[in-house]
Amino acid sequence: MGKREIDFDVQAMTFKKILVAVDEDDSSSSRKAFSYAVTLADSYHVPLGIVTILETRDLSIYDSLQPDVLDQRREAMSKSIDVYVKKAQDFGVNHVDGFIGEGKPGKEIVQNIIPSFNPDLLVCGSETKEKNSIFIGSQASYMAQNAPCSVIVVR
After folding, report:
1. What is the CATH number of the domain that holds 131?
2. How confident is the model over 108-147, as pLDDT tens digits?
3. Is the pLDDT of residue 7 over 80?
4. Over the chain, what is the mean pLDDT?
5. Strand 48-54 vs strand 121-125: parallel, antiparallel, or unpaired?
6. Residue limits of the UspA domain (predicted)?
């Protein structure tokens, strides 16, 4: 068998809209994913979406039935997203949107946030702190397999 020649032209690939998932526990891989997404959005001059998910499964039955507890968690997450949005803007990204979802992170991002924001790239971290806890990172595999856009997983 002879060598087969591969003939194609390399074409520049850029993204038009980037979504980054950050976890509420602010893991190191989540911060790295955020930094990577902000750097890309700034260099490509494209909109950036930042999403975090309130993992209602982490709440006790008692807490989940207490409106005040849920409201406090939502308020804390809203403030956290505002910090991320401000950091991205300070870095130079002109168009930044923050999103908060509730439920299982991978499923919520793939089924609700991505269709709403319509990115062509999703960036997420991959770190998990505990095997029995669902963080954004442990959902990276689900999102990579099910997202309708390209996915970059940052460690």
Report:
1. 3.40.50.620
2. 999 999 999 999 999 998 865 554 444 455 688 899 999 9
3. yes
4. 87
5. unpaired
6. 15-155
Strand order in the sheet with 48-54: 96-102, 48-54, 18-21, 121-125, 150-154
User: Is residue 71 domain-resident?
Assistant: yes
In a domain, 10, yes or no: no
Cα of 13 vs its chain's centroid, Å: 21
What contacts 144, CB < 8 A, 6 or more positions away? Answer: 151, 153
Residue 88 lies in a domain: yes
Structure tokens at 108: 């919520």
Q: Give me 110's structure tokens.
A: 């793939």
One-letter amino acid at 91 equals F
Query: Nearest 5°: CA angle at 120, between 91 and 145?
Result: 115
Domains contained in the chain, number: 1
- Quote the pTM value: 0.85
Q: How far is CA 75 from CA 54, 78, 81, 131, in A?
A: 11, 5, 10, 27
Containing domain of residue 86, as a range? 18-147
User: What is the token pair recorded at 139?
Assistant: 């959902």
